[in-house]
Amino acid sequence: MARKLPPLHPGEILREEFLIPLKMSPGKFAAICHVPRTRIERLVNGETGVTADTALRLGRALKTSAQLWMNLQNAYDVKTAELAIGKDLAAIEPIANIGNAA
After folding, report:
1. 18 exposed, middle or buried (CB, 10 Å; 0-12, 13-18, 19+)?
2. Alpha carbon distance 36, 92 (integer Å)
3. 1/24 Cα distance (integer angstroms)
């Protein structure tokens, strides 16, 4: 069986797809976004997630949508939760005939 990779944190995408190609430090990027340096540092280190406020700032600075960043965070959160409670999820029996009641 193939080994599964861990969920991709949005901060990794910010670092690898934007900051590194731009040769920009988290501190300089934070100044552009008008946020504390530690916010971007924690984000790119996977220590904190993307909030709506941060998503709006990332979208504006990087010419992307805020929704892109929120979707990346949501996908990360769902996959992380799925990994954490996978056995409990497997034990849940779906309710039959939902939506088919007369």
Report:
1. middle
2. 43
3. 39
Residue length, the chain? 102
What is the dihedral sign for C-alpha 66, 72, 77, 78? positive
Residue-wise pLDDT tens digits, 16-41: 999 999 999 999 999 999 999 999 99
In terms of DSSP H, where are the helices of the chain? 10-13, 20-22, 26-33, 37-44, 52-62, 66-91
Question: Looking up tokens 């309710």, which residue turns up?
Answer: 95
State the Cα–Cα distance between residues 14 and 83, nearest whole angstrom.
Answer: 23
DSSP assignment letter at 23: T
Output the six-digit token pair for 11. Answer: 């901060």
Distance in angstroms (rounded) separating the CA atoms of residues 34 and 63 = 16
Residue-wise pLDDT tens digits, 70-100: 999 999 999 999 999 999 999 999 998 777 6
Tokens (6 digits) for 31? 């100044």
